[in-house]
Structure to design on (489 residues):
């Protein structure tokens, strides 16, 4: 992280903070690091309020409790999105399952044909969600209008509708193809009107097993195969054996600990994870418009450790399976817990600064959903000063912050261009629009914003940063880079 430079309380810097009455102009430098803790954040100036959210929900036999937790805690997710500048974004919200059949293989129990094939779902088979909530279409649309109203394709409460839609049941294929389902859902012409090219796209995976996106239905052949056959027993272990490779593991079916496990990049049967990474990256002209998240099992991708043990239900060593990496309630319950998500986690981490994942094994998924919503809030534009600001001149009444604020055009390219924004005459202001005073525009100020930036135990201040540009509109792609000295070490 970059940090600010100062000389005692009077900093030699780029930006003058004229609010420090009785002191010379103070400025903040973006060079010469010091040890002071610093808040460092980027805020898109031209806020894009269009957000397409796609939930990919595992609907295999062991997911009932997890689906219930997801839907029960969805209101917290929406509450954070409502704190985005301007309120709830203009959302399209859709749900798909992990069930896309068994790659064309016939007579695989629970995996008919192409399954749900990446089609948007409005709930479990035979549900009445659309009727209950007056939903028109296969996804939720909730769009703000200039007069302050919202145009919706449903009636009633948003969280109530999602609770119904997200309860997909547990009749889906046990060979879960999370990545392939998302890939199909986002193909051109599929699920008309859901995907908007200019919108942020958030793909959120909720799963207790790893990805099994399969290239060849032959992987599910030989239903009566044993431990010594080419394919091994027809269980979910085939997804691991043919989709993951571990260090010095000449016999993946051998029971015991494995290390250095990662997606197999040369699988005979399964698609490489890179196929899905490339697809998602290429959906948008600006890759930062793609956000991915997972509520999944636990896996340390650095060590790559996992264990192969006997089948949980029968304890039969001739039926190997990847042991659960975490449990929610009861380790003796064969449907409890989650397997290490080697392939899914590799996919998620391929999107730096635009990914988050947390364990599905919490007995309450509220924190997981809020963590995802906070990532979306940050990506779209979060002006909240989310750490306590340090008072850099306690001799003067009130908080005296020390910040650097700069407009940056093309921040990630060789044509990066910076424009320093000076502080308004008063840095801390009560109003929601900065009064420039004698500083002129553009200038920045900090103001209390309890509604958008609610206080918590870690940050009791509830501040956000605002820039008065005097009516000027920065070029598209401009990012406001903010650095402020904060309290603590």
């Amino acid at each position: 992280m970059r940090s600010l430079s100062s000389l005692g309380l009077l900093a030699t810097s780029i930006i003058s903070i004229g609010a420090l009455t009785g002191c010379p102009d103070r400025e903040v430098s973006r060079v010469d690091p010091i040890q002071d803790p610093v808040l460092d954040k980027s805020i898109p100036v031209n806020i894009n309020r269009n957000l397409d959210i796609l939930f990919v929900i595992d609907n295999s036999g062991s997911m009932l409790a997890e689906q219930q937790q997801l839907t029960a805690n969805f209101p917290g997710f929406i509450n954070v999105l409502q704190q985005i500048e301007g309120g709830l974004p203009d959302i399209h919200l859709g749900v798909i399952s992990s069930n896309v059949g068994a790659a064309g293989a016939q007579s695989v129990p629970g995996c008919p044909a192409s399954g749900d094939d990446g089609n948007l779902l409005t709930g479990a088979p035979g549900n009445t969600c659309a009727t209950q909530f007056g939903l028109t279409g296969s996804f939720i649309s909730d769009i703000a209008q200039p007069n302050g109203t919202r145009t919706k394709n449903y009636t009633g409460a948003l969280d109530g509708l999602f609770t119904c839609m997200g309860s997909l049941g547990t009749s889906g294929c046990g060979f879960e193809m999370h990545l392939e389902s998302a890939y199909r859902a986002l193909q051109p012409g599929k699920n008309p009107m859901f995907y908007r090219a200019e919108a942020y796209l958030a793909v959120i995976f909720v799963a207790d097993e790893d990805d099994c996106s399969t290239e060849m239905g032959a992987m599910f052949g030989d239903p009566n195969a044993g431990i010594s056959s080419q394919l091994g027993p027809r269980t979910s272990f085939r997804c691991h054996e043919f989709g993951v490779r571990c260090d010095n593991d000449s016999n993946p079916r051998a029971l015991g600990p494995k290390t250095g496990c990662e997606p197999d990049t040369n699988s005979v049967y399964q698609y490489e994870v890179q196929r899905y990474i490339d697809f998602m990256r290429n959906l948008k002209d600006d890759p930062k418009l793609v956000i991915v998240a997972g509520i999944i099992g636990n896996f340390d991708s650095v060590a790559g450790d996992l264990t192969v043990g006997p089948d949980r239900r029968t304890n039969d060593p001739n039926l190997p399976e990847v042991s659960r990496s975490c449990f929610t309630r009861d380790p003796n319950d064969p449907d409890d817990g989650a397997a290490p998500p080697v392939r899914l986690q590799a996919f998620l981490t391929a999107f730096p600064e635009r990914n988050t994942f947390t364990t599905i094994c919490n007995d309450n998924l509220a924190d997981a959903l809020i963590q995802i919503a906070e990532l979306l809030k940050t990506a779209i534009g979060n002006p909240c000063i989310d750490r306590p600001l340090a008072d850099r001149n306690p001799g003067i009444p009130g908080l005296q912050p020390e910040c650097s604020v700069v407009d940056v055009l093309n921040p990630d390219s060789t044509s990066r261009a910076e424009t320093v924004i000076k502080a308004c005459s008063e840095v801390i202001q009560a109003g929601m629009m900065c009064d420039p005073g004698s500083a002129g525009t553009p200038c920045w100020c900090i103001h209390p914003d309890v509604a958008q930036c609610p206080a918590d135990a870690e940050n009791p201040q509830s501040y956000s940063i605002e820039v008065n540009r005097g009516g000027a509109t920065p070029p598209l792609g401009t990012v406001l880079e903010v650095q402020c000295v904060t309290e603590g070490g």
About this structure: The chain is about 15% helix and 20% strand. Residues 50-381 form a domain with the Rossmann fold fold (CATH 3.40.50.410).
